[in-house]
Specification:
There is one protein chain. The chain contains 4 helices and 4 strands; from the N terminus they run βαβαβαβα. Helix 3 (about 65-75) links the parallel strand 3 (about 50-55) and strand 4 (about 80-85). It is about 40% helix and about 25% strand. Strands 2-1-3-4 form a 4-stranded parallel beta sheet, with helices on both faces.
Length: about 100
């Protein structure tokens, strides 16, 4: 079973993602759902996390891409699914860096 953390600043977006994950309860287990990047590192240190679904625009002083970079440096085996509702075209290229 894939252990999932959701990080999305928009409460409606976060709730929708929670519903999707819970519908696939045979494949995925939602560990935590947070509105800010802050705290994800602690979750990754204390729990087995396989996948983080993170909104680029997560509410915090750190944007989602910087957060992804920090997590990948500390926990290279955790997969990241980066989402955004923003129309900016440079996000996909910047996320690959």
């Amino acid at each position: 079973m894939v252990q999932v953390v959701i990080a999305a600043g928009n409460p409606l977006e976060r709730k929708y993602l929670e519903i999707l994950i819970k519908k696939e309860s045979k494949k995925f287990h939602l560990i935590h759902s947070v509105g800010e990047f802050h705290g994800i590192e602690e979750i990754c240190q204390t729990e087995r996390v396989d996948l983080i679904i993170i909104d680029i625009d997560t509410v915090n002083d750190l944007n989602g891409l910087e957060g992804v970079k920090q997590i990948k440096e500390q926990f290279p085996d955790i997969k990241m699914l980066i989402i955004t509702g923003q129309p900016e075209c440079s996000y996909p290229d910047r996320a690959k860096e």
